[in-house]
Amino acid sequence: MAYPDDVRYTAEHEWARLDNGIVTVGITSYASDQLGYVVFVELPEIGKRLDASKPFGVVEAVKTVSDLYSPISGEVVEVNEALGGNPALVNQQPYGEGWMIKLKPRDPGEINQLLSNQDYEKMLEEQHA
Amino acid sequence: MPPTTLPKHTPFHEFHRLAGAKLVDFAGFEMPLRYTGDVREHMAVRKAAGLFDISHMGEFHVAGPRALEFLNRAITNDVAALVPGQALYSPMCRPDGGIVDDLLVYRFPDHYMVVVNASTTAKDFAWLEAQAPAGVTFEDRSDQTALLAIQGPKAAEVLRGQVPDAVLDLGYYRFAEARAFGADAVVSRTGYTGEDGFEIYHHPRDAAQVWEGIVAAGRPAGLELVGLGARDTLRLEVAYMLYGNDIDDTTTPLEAGLGWTVKLAKSEFVGRDALVAQKERGLGRKLVGIELDGRRVPRHGMAIASNDRIVGQVTSGTFSPSLERPIGMGYVESALAKNGQPLEIHAGESRLAARVAPRPFYTHGTRKS
Q1: Does this complex have an ipTM over 0.90?
Q2: Is A86 within 8 Å of chain B by CB?
Q3: Domain boundaries A8-127, CATH class
């Protein structure tokens, strides 16, 4: 499975994409496959300040539930309202329409500390070795 | 703890792998969790048909002149009421009334077959063996038994022409020894989904032929391969027990609402005195259905509260694909076990508004009765 090279990754299976000073956050295709069919995503309020590696929401799948962790520190400037009506977008387009929140980063350089797609792929391979 | 060993494979393992199933370790077996998706597989069983590999379950062979006496003393339901070709659901209890397992007993003309949960096969075998009197032969035949379930409103249509017509006329909890897909089999009208359906016991050497036969006959009817994920959502919608979640060594059949399987009027059985005493004393807690608004899902182990007081615990929970809302079961203090009773589920930091709901949740299944 190929992981896109235009986003950065966390060990908790979130991705982050920097675009015009704003960081979009979602979960990886690996994560959404592991979770199975997503039925609900609980997201933070706009304006909430998030700390890196701290929970910002919850994703409920039919079979399991998982916390969502913020890849970087920053302020929530937008949440994906479309997930309210169609949470399965997280399964269908994890790197696109299934995004979860947009953050104004406290430190725009912080995203560079996250994993590259190659690092992430290597981590998954090692976990499954 | 048992020594760490590689997971066992059922005779269908290669089919799961080729179908691209996500495999998980379950009760020491590597089993398919899902093939295409929990919801798709679930809905196929509700609308058409699904094929389940449940060969991980345990099968014991019981024979000899004292077989009936032995089994009837070991379980709470009444084996003496069975005629040949009939099966029975029953808890098996400890002397204190706690449930060792829930199981099926099949009565054949000259022996019985006991079908137990995969996770408890070794425990059950030891438990029963210790009670087996002289004059009873008691054998674990799990490794010589392949087991497939075909479930759904179109299950009979899929089997038509591949089993004798008499099999399609079987009533609920009846079975026949018959040829199925060219193999010698025991076919019963039983299941764990709330839909019409069959379970097909056969020798592992015939496994490929039976699997391929069902898949070929089933595809035109919309049959899907179904993993353990949808197996759990299907059973929970109809409020069937999952051993280890809803019932275990610490819960009794009476607390679980399985009183209909406890035949106090039959001859002496293990756990009878404790269950009689519990009935006289009154139940401290009861298993109830739980429904919730919103889309947060109750999960096994979450606390249940009422008026800021912990009153019980969730034993099973899922998002119901058929009803498109969260459902669950759990034990609560008996005084609160009435339909509509408001409850609060502790989901991490969140508090989920819930209420006691009638079981089963899904009432449109095609199961025979």
Answers
A1: no
A2: no
A3: mainly beta
